Amino acid sequence: MASKHNKREEGSSRRQFLLRTAAVCGLAAVSGVWGYAFYSKEPVRRSDEKIYTFRDYRVEEKKIYPQLAVARGKDADKMVRAAIEKIGGMGRFVSPGEKVLLKPNAAWDRQPEQAANTNPDVVASVVKLCLEARASEVWVTDVSVNDPYRCFARSGIEDAVKKAGGKIRLAAESDFVPTDLKGESLKVWPVSRFYHQADKVIDLPVVKHHSLSKCTMAMKNLYGSLGGQRNRLHQDINTAIADLSSAIRPTLIVMDATRVLMRNGPTGGNLSDVSIQNTVVAGIDIVAVEAYGLRFLDLKVEDIPFIGMAEKRGIGISDLKSLTVAEINV
Amino acid sequence: MIARLFTLRNIRRIYAFFFILLFVLLLWLTGFRRIKGYETPLFLELDPLVAVSSFLTSWTIYKGLVLSLFIIAGTLFFGRFFCSWICPLGIINQVAGSIFNKLRAVDTVALNSYRPLYRLKYYILAILVALAALGSLQIGLLDPIPLITRSFAVSVFPGLNYNRGWLYLKQPLFQGGTFLGVIFLAVLFANRFLPRFWCRAVCPLGALLGLLSFKPLFSIWRDVDRCTDCKKCLAHCHGGCDPDTAVRTTECHLCMNCIEDCPEDAIHYGLSGLSSSVHMSLDVSRRRLIESAVAGALVFPVLRSTITSKTSPQYRVIRPPGSIREVDFLRRCIKCGECMKVCPTNAIQPALLEAGFEGTWTPVLINTIGYCEYNCVLCSHVCPTGAITPLTVEKKLGKPAGQKPLKIGTAFYDRGRCLPWAMNIDCIVCEEVCPTSPKAIWFESVEVQLRDGTKKILKRPRIDANLCIGCGICENKCPIHDYPAVRVTSIGETRSSTNQMILKS
Hints:
The complex is a heterodimer of chains A (330) and B (505).
Chain A: H1 14-38, E1 68-72, H2 76-86, E2 99-104, H3 120-132, E3 137-140, H4 148-154, H5 157-164, E4 167-168, E5 176-180, E6 188-192, H6 194-197, E7 200-204, E8 206-210, E9 214-216, H7 237-247, E10 252-261, E11 274-283, H8 286-293, H9 305-312, E12 325-329
Parallel strand pairs in A: 1-12, 2-3, 2-7, 3-4, 7-10, 8-10
Antiparallel strand pairs in A: 1-11, 5-6, 8-9, 10-11
Chain B: H1 2-5, H2 8-29, H3 42-46, H4 48-58, H5 68-78, H6 82-85, H7 88-100, H8 105-112, H9 120-134, H10 144-161, H11 177-189, H12 197-202, H13 204-212, E1 219-222, E2 247-248, H14 257-261, E3 267-270, E4 279-280, H15 286-304, H16 326-332, H17 338-342, E5 348-350, E6 363-365, H18 378-382, H19 393-397, E7 410-413, H20 419-423, H21 429-433, E8 441-449, E9 455-463, H22 473-477, E10 486-489
């Protein structure tokens, strides 16, 4: 009996032969086209990644307003409102329908009393002011050093911002886009994409001691826009801070000096390191705000190289005597 | 109509759906943002094998593990209901089995009848229990609840998150996660060849519950007067317990399918009637069982005659804060991975062989992946067995003042790699991030001469071993991040009286 595997192929007609030949020729041609189209001397095809640059978030300078407003008092909300009112009110900085990004210092898993992060009441107050100025959205972000969820929760900022009507936006790995900072030591760095989506950026630093740069305030707070391996920045910290403040020009700076961390910065952790100063400083000149903040830490402009570097680059003025400073008690 | 939907089979399906959902939900809740005091390790606490074997290693039934008594008592009364009604791995295996197999009636007789292979699980149980009785807790390797918890925490959740970021802000990474994931997939894929292969042939918890349902009060019984021997009861049998002949209560999962499938209404659940067929007793050779236990007992001295974290401290074995001393830790840890799931920085990792074979997949901190968050005590609160005992933040940090903080290790500088020490480059990121107050990392300012002859003031970091708590954030944030210039090792850990270096501290 014949094996069942001995079934014979059926003969093919001329028509079938031509069709099959055409199909084989077609496939061969496709392989040729594939080789032609993708032949390369490079081992990997590079896709050109878009490199972003920061937009200028500033508003026009107006001589009728003082350059700096310093409010002293007990109530954070009142201090923030008074200081911003003095320099033109939030309506000067935020136009209706704009998306505003707030950058508090929320780098550490610490409680408000420990003064390692911006006072949540100050952040909430600025959120409310932005919404009152009819901003369409108010985002609060930071690239924290500790676990970001813990930092925002335990600093009280998450809760305060949500109550005030703002939104916490934390950057996941996919939210970082390469951005050219055009600096002396900072070239292209990953920056959270929220900075490129926002119309206005408000810098909300806290005044703190820092072991390497001596102080961390408005200028160093901008570190928190960067992702990537930013621990390398310490190797040339003064140039890096000056580069950052040249690259990012915030609309407004509201500096929290309600509680000031005097020692063991920037992490703190001990209440005995905290000095209560009950002050809020607002201004549009980051260098002037920075220079003003030094008094809380008993420092002088000459002690801090990056302030001089920034001033030399024309970012702002550190000589407070040449500026009008409005002082308010609330 | 509605009443017809509430068949025994459907009621079991509702329970199964509820418990698998509860399992995933509790594991999803196991994280800083959501934990809020829920009983997240509930399934591990319900697991009688965890309770029994950890009782054998340390003579306690720790806290929540008493919940397993509900399962033990329930099984004595009702039989092995846990396997098809509650066990998440059993339920997933059942679903996988029905996806992989399209059974024809003729196959069901072959696949769903009892096989001698199913004795294997009792021998596995004997080996693991013998080891536990001698003091080595290895049930976590094969116990289904730790196995599925670990697989979900270490590979399934991170895998689902990949490229989407819907579960975590930062993609979790686990050493050996692929291997654990492949084991889990292999368990599921085994259903392709034999439905519920894991549950019927391997599962040591199933074996324990099988022993407990040796003579349950209530059981499936077949009415011999009504039965026509059509074998339709085998069509959907979960346990392979021969409902068509003499029901094996030790294998029966109480899936109730045979009752629904019987066209003659001959199969019932409850107290046996007068016309009940006989029940088959446990089909295990006592000789083989004793052999297995002896084999386990023989492995024990071999396990102990090797260098492990128990014989001498291993520098990479940095245990989570709150861990008890290593000898006891290995007596309690079931490798379930709850602490790995809850760790906010992803620092807690399943050990490979750092702690010896006995310590496989036990938690160790790897500071190049994460670090121990200063104010965090989450891992100590999710541990179901007390290998990590609950901590308060105050206790961990040594507050109020005067108390000593809890140390999990000590950091050391590698001066050949540290930028200020080796290359005269400014850095001290480690000092910046050091969370203690005063900082355990301090620096001295020194004037150094650079290659071109110029002078420079440089800050060189040092460790104060008495203040360092071994949290590892310095190692994690060091810019030399492939092999950091400051590294934490386990020495100085509070939990050990012998792994110490300084006389006065």
